[in-house]
């Protein structure tokens, strides 16, 4: 059998050009291609929160020439919340490697008299209507971060979903909405004093803002809601192909220049190998299934 690869590799990115997944893959792709000795061609197939492009790869030939750079939505959140997703996120894919994570920050308008998570929770409980927060659409990791915080703390928080998240940022900066949960992209407004950070919804503090404590540090056990990005092939990919692709991903993430570029874009290199990735995906689906049942959220 000829050693893989012997021709260019298509990597399906199931989100639009310019998305975090797309940008990350365009940083990693040239370095992976250098290791593998063949070009990597990115094929953007956006739609349905990553489901459209993921389904293409699930049904692709098992030869290693069609791979997927997926995200938390397509392989963690939506499989837990969509009753009719057209693939099994575990059984229909070969895990290659976790690439990066990206988390969410809880921020407030400076007019809100709170400076930490316990003060925020107490403030929300003291309001007759509770407290509303801006975040992405229903099922987004930042929207769900607020749902988890409500579950764990009892704080009466109401998600205002924004399909156009830029409008959500604008509304929070203007004080129309007093709280927002969003990615590291919100930090420039914090540095300018236009917003105040309360917590990060990650397991550990983030390199882009090491002074911001986690929600868990502040007593909100289990309030972890990260985005993540991982490479898969169709089920049944040969072990040698899987391992070579995984090695190329690992080498790219270990390159200091590439790692710095990713960090500057709000991403944290977080390589996991194939077996660890399979367990990680299973745990993520389990977590979001529990949240979905607890809050009664199902997505059509």
TrEMBL record:
- Reading the lineage from the top rank, the first entry is Bacteria
What single Pfam family name could you report for this chain, choosing any that match? TctC
The family classification in the record reads: Belongs to the UPF0065 (bug) family.
Q: What is this protein called?
A: Tripartite tricarboxylate transporter substrate binding protein
- What organism, scientifically named, is this protein from? Neoroseomonas terrae
């Amino acid at each position: 059998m000829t050693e893989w690869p012997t021709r260019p590799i298509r990597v399906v990115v199931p989100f639009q050009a310019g998305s975090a997944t797309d940008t990350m893959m365009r940083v990693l792709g040239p370095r992976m291609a250098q290791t593998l000795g063949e070009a990597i061609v990115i094929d953007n197939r956006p739609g349905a929160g990553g489901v459209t492009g993921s389904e293409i790869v699930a049904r692709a030939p098992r030869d290693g020439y069609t791979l997927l750079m997926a995200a938390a939505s397509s392989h963690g959140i939506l499989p837990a919340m969509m009753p009719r997703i057209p693939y099994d996120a575990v059984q229909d894919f070969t895990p290659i490697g976790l690439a990066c994570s990206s988390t969410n920050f809880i921020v407030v308008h400076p007019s809100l008299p709170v400076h930490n998570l316990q003060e925020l929770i107490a403030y929300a409980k003291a309001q007759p209507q509770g407290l509303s927060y801006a975040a992405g659409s229903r099922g987004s990791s930042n929207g769900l971060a607020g749902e988890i915080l409500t579950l764990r703390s009892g704080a009466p928080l109401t998600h205002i979903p924004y399909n156009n998240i830029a409008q959500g940022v604008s509304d929070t900066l203007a004080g129309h909405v007093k709280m927002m949960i969003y990615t590291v992209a919100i930090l420039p407004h914090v540095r300018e004093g236009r917003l105040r950070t309360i917590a990060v919804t990650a397991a550990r503090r983030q390199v882009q803002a090491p002074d911001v404590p986690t929600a868990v540090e502040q007593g909100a056990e289990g309030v972890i809601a990260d985005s993540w990005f991982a490479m898969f092939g169709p089920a049944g990919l040969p072990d040698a192909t899987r391992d070579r692709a995984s090695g190329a991903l690992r080498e790219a993430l270990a390159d200091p220049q590439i790692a710095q570029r990713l960090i500057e874009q709000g991403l944290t290199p977080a390589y996991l190998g194939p077996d660890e990735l399979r367990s990680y995906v299973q745990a993520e689906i389990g977590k979001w299934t529990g949240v979905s049942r607890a809050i009664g959220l199902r997505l059509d």
